[in-house]
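Lab meeting prep.
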Amino acid sequence: MVVCIGVLLALFIRPALHLLSTAWRDTNTPTPTVLEPGIMNDVSRLNETLISKTWSVPQDKAAAEAQLSEILHQARRDGLPVSIAGARHSMGGHTMYPRGVVIDMLPFNAMQLDEQHNILHVQAGARWNDILKYLNPFGRSVAIMQSNDSFTVGGSISVNCHGWQYGRPPIASSVLGFRLMKADGIIVRCSRNENAELFSLALGGYGLFGVILDVDLQVVPNERYQLEQFLVPADKALSTFDRAAQEQFSMAYARMSIAPDTLLDEVIITVFRVDPDPAVSIPPLVDPRMQSLRRSLFRGSVGSDFGKTLRWNAETKLQPHLRDRIFSRNQLLNEGVEIFEKLFVRLDRHLARVLCPTTKCGIICAVSPPNRTKT
């Protein structure tokens, strides 16, 4: 009986207490102090920056372009640097220039689909989660994007992000063209045939060549996928992946063990293949499931060997029996940064800490020559 009780404690009670403790710390973490007027930060909360002005782009296209041109002219006249912010996930102060003008692109987010040619015309401030919701009723999906959809189109193409779409190059390969407002306020169309040099420079150029206004993106069908997983020793990971790749799949990722007993010795490989049955409908797009539990598992692994083991066991032993085996492409892409962000904030006026790994993307434009010296 004592042995049975001990087994139950090990299997259920300690993990439950660990997850509850993590959730309690999460919900009771103080929120960061409200920034004083004239101070801006990014999502890392490590880069409080004194700025001259923040300007939000109006939704109306004509008004936005006229006002933006005027803002750039004023900045040149007054000698002010200009930077552009979207979701501000490009950390390290990239989206804010000391005593400069910050252009907030988020309101500039309209989109329209050309169904005949599978082209999405989308403004640079649109977030990927809104794009997925827009495309889903049309049976379309994003060709290439990161593993999280909280970022903006302008930010993603400004860093030329890669995705987890297997066999696809970075996002620049799905960009057919865009309109760019240069530092002098003139708008030019950029593509592989028009202003080709600017096209190649602005893709991955962190906004140093102007303000990306709107983009033409290639879109793809929203397909139905089957999940397949492999748990293998690390030295078998590449050969296992190569064998899996012999049968085509569309999306894939792999993770190495973080548990102390198997650290870097085991790898879980997850691939998604197109479901060949055309008679079965594509699952509807819904909000991600079990967000609170997944967040506690992820956050509970920070600074805890038990938490790391619990997370790895959940991924390799529990998740395969609980998660769905069939997904739509849009559902797989419909994952924000909420699982990772805003935990363990240390409130200090000049040094706030947020543990957040989402450094994949952002948007920045330095119209004036860059000078990263902060005061």
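Slide two material, second protein:
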Amino acid sequence: MTSINPVIQSSVAAPVTVQTDPLKYAFFFLVPLDSLLSMWIATVGLCFIVPQILSYFGYYSGIFTGGIWDKFGMIYFGDPLWIDTISHG
């Protein structure tokens, strides 16, 4: 994974990255399109839009100064979303 432009990283709460692993893209050829669309909508909603809104309400203090791994940890493993726990359930 490589991070996107630093200007975008400092203004967006989500860990915005570009995948550099070819197996990540090969996976998309194995999954039906309706599943991919559902996965894409859930990822955009839970990992990009909701954390941005919650950061404006005071959650995730310091998320704009952190790197991609700090943002990943705050969103996926911390309050109030616990996305990692939900995705395993």
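Talking points for slide two:
The longest helix spans residues 33-56.
The chain has a mean pLDDT of 79.
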